Amino acid sequence: MPIIPDTKNWTWVLERACPECGFDASSVAFRDIPRLTRENVAAWTPVLQRDDARERPDESTWSPLEYAAHVRDVFRVMGGRLRLLLEVDDPEFENWDQDATAVAERYNHQDPATVARQLRDEGLALADAWQAVPDAALGRSGRRSDGSVFTVETLGRYFIHDPVHHLWDVRR
Hints:
globular
């Protein structure tokens, strides 16, 4: 059975705690996002060193390696969206089909050590980018094609739930 694409609109994480992982992005201070990102980055290395990193727990759930490759790409995509918000007035974000990317990039066939290195590099670069955001830019806004509007601040809080949630997905 293939992985079922995730079509949920996760913007609700800006308003309340996630009932699955328990993380409450609505209570995260923007200035904590760089630290939380760095902590998340560090937590993925042991996950990718596990003997079962390529094993799916069931036919419809990604393996730890697939989740890590996804998180690496989330860091990259959100870094691009943050740059857009800071450089362009009211940008519309390019659509990103995370499920198509997972298939096209063959996430579960990638090398765990390479993914760990790339995830670290992308994640630390994004943490630095969040940290460098001036207070005056926190209200700059952009939007997804579905009409969801994000400011720099809400994009950061929306973003941080994703890698935290996926680390929860691969817990033992």
